[in-house]
Amino acid sequence: MLLRRLSLYLVTAWVAITVNFLLPRMMPGNPVQQLIGKLTGQVTVQQVRAIELAFGIGLHQNLWDQYIGYWHQLLVGNLGVSITLSTPVSSVLQSAVPWTIGLIGVSTILSFLVGTVTGTLLGWFRGSRLDSLIPVATFFQAVPYFFLGTVVLLVFGSNLHWFPVLGAYSQSVTPGWHWDFVFSLVRYGELPVITIVLSSVAGWMLGMRNMMITMIAEDFVLMAVAKGLPRRKVIMHAARNAVLPSVANLSLAIGLVVSGALLVELVFNYPGVGDLLLQAVLNEDYPLIQGIFLVITMTVLAANLLADVFYFVLDPRTRTEAAV
Amino acid sequence: MSERPTTSEATTLEDDTVLAIEDFCVDYGWGDAAVRAVNHVNLSVRRSRVLGVAGESGSGKSTLVYAATRLLRPPGVISGGHVSLTFDDPTSSDAKRRTVDLLAATPSELRAIRWSQVSIVLQSALNALNPVLRIGHEFDEVLSTHRPGMKKAQRRERAAELLSLVGLNADRLARFPHELSGGQRQRVMIALALALDPQLVIMDEPTTALDVVTQREIVNELAQLRARFGFSMIFITHDLSLLVELADDIAVMYAGNVVEWAPANDLYGAPRHPYTLGLLNSSPPLSGERRELVGIAGSPPDLSQPIAGCSFHDRCPFAFEKCSSQAPELRVLDDSGRKVACWLHDSPADVPVALRRRPRDATRVGAQTPSNAEGVV
């Protein structure tokens, strides 16, 4: 079953890469000429070649040969050269992707954990005073993120100075794997992480709460009570089943980690992929856009694969297909 | 069954009672919106005996038992009465008998009694077993919760032993519920129910979801297990012919009331309440001659509306004026101790023929016929 899934993913990846290859070539006009015109006076030979390589124009090859060449470049890790930055796209991505994965990844997982745990308790103790958490969480989800981020930044960062602001780490420490840097990283990450968790936790919470309420009505939860199990274990019986849809949603959320952080990175001036993509689009830096799309596609696919594996482990019923 | 009581034993000594339900009332909802689902019920389960509770869907039979064991979920509310459980206290060294007021018990007292003294088997074993846990985990969980002294290997051994009691191989422990057949799952539930040698096992329609062959096998196995371990049992079903094989006494419920209580053979062979008669006529006998099946006309009353008189009167073929104005109470009918709630028996001369048959010989009833003997040790 998992093997069949894997082959499905390979096909999807192939389609995504092919579309990524074809898209710039299907655009009207000649982007190379457009870009050269835009950059008149500053364009280097290297840049022209980079553009030509990215679009396969000027190489006088037919589409098929270009396609083969594209794959060849891709397999050796050559994504072309960024037009505006004059550096290889792969190294541009290497410097941006870890920031985004770090910030948004941590926030997403934290939000999932906090939301799922509170959702479990909200479901079990439904109708109690805990329920007042729901409107509060929903409020933060409803407030536009840009606004929430700015307010939090101004109040807790600029005015109260509880958290450092702007950037990913203090300018006074040199990046590297030592304690000062990691500490600075964590301190600078706190505010963006808290803001993201605040604005996204309601979804996890409500989803889990509703599934818990559905599960509590199940016979096996009644049986857990009848068995005289302590309340903690009874809740676990229900939660273990209620969490399954949330896990499926987590995979989608993780897939979007790389791309979905534009606003956060803008508000907090964080050096990630969202910021990079915005710059690339504004400057019509096609090789870079192509590279970012490729990374986003691959992350979404990888996250989905991971979720499939995780689900397979969590829910034995999905395993029967293989057994029968 | 050798321990089947004669009718004279039907009124046994007080200290032989395992579960005593007295003047028990259960409502659904609160205040004005409350619907009375169990109405002033008195029942008792005696040591090593089987009480059958029969009735249509919605008659209150499950509500009664779930409420009595404090398993009823909101909006079910216990609105009156007493329920007490008597058992040999395993925690005291001299195995002293203890009686616990179940309605007053604290959560921790309840947890200690649950499963170790009162276990339950539900109708659908697929829903009763947690779908994401292995069968072995279910056993391990109850054993580790209630027998903290047991080591992991001992618990596994005990689980395998329990499965063998119901004719399942120990390799089933590594399986998930969806990997077993319906009959196997119900056997697992029965084995699980016996894990801690409980005083009382509640069976809530355990065979209803199974085909008749599997049903037959499981009923036979239950009879064997009971003969071997001597636990008491409450068996809830709508199938009276099934009950008569397993139960010592049968209580027939209708609209939240017990309308007839009698030793199983008496009730089966000679029903005294028109509703019991209707139930018997609407299900085929497991053995004996064929007979025409007749359903009970109409449907159970809407309990949210006040009912004037006997709750069965508008479906009863024998109803007369008094039935629609005054509700009959459950009263002892004759010196055999059987009880019935029906005005027809007030004047013996007017009792319809169908309701004054003498208890037939056991040949019709089946429990002691050779064809069923393999089910009895």
In terms of topology, how is this protein built?
The complex is a heterodimer of chains A (324) and B (377).
Chain A (H helix, E strand, L loop, with lengths): L1 H25 L4 H8 L6 H11 L7 H13 L13 H36 L8 H10 L2 H15 L19 H38 L2 H8 L4 H25 L6 H6 L5 H10 L3 H29 L5 H4 L1
Helix pairs in contact in A: 1-13, 2-3, 5-8, 5-10, 5-13, 6-8, 7-8, 8-10, 9-10, 10-13, 12-13
Chain B lengths: L16 E12 L6 E12 L3 E5 L6 H8 L7 E13 L8 E5 L5 H7 L4 E4 L3 H4 L6 H12 L5 H14 L16 H12 L6 E5 L7 H18 L2 E6 L2 H7 L2 E6 L2 E7 H6 L4 H9 L48 E2 L6 E2 L21 H4 L12
Parallel strand pairs in B: 3-8, 3-9, 6-7, 7-8
Antiparallel strand pairs in B: 1-2, 1-4, 4-5, 9-10, 10-12, 11-12
Based on CA atoms alone, the radius of gyration of chain A comes out at: 24 Å
Q: How far is the first residue's CA from the last residue's CA of chain B?
A: 7 Å
User: What is the SS-derived class of chain B?
Assistant: alpha/beta
Q: Based on the coordinates given, report the CATH architecture of the domain at 14-47 and 54-110 and 237-377 in chain B.
A: 3-Layer(aba) Sandwich
Question: Which superfamily, in CATH terms, is the homologous superfamily of the domain at 98-314 in chain A?
Answer: MetI-like
The topology string of helices and strands of chain A comes to HHHHHHHHHHHHHH
Which structural class fits the helix and strand makeup of chain A?
mainly alpha
Largest sheet of chain A: none
Report the C-alpha radius of gyration of chain B, rounded: 21 Å
Range of helix content of chain A = over 70%
Largest interface: A-B, 23 and 30 residues
- Would you tell me the overall average pLDDT of chain A? 80
Q: What is the CATH topology assignment of the domain at 98-314 in chain A? A: MetI-like fold
Which percent band covers the strand fraction of chain A?
under 5%
Number of helices of chain A: 14
- Tell me which oligomeric state these chains represent: heterodimer
CATH level-1 class of the domain at 98-314 in chain A? Mainly Alpha
Percent of residues in helices of chain B comes to 25-40%
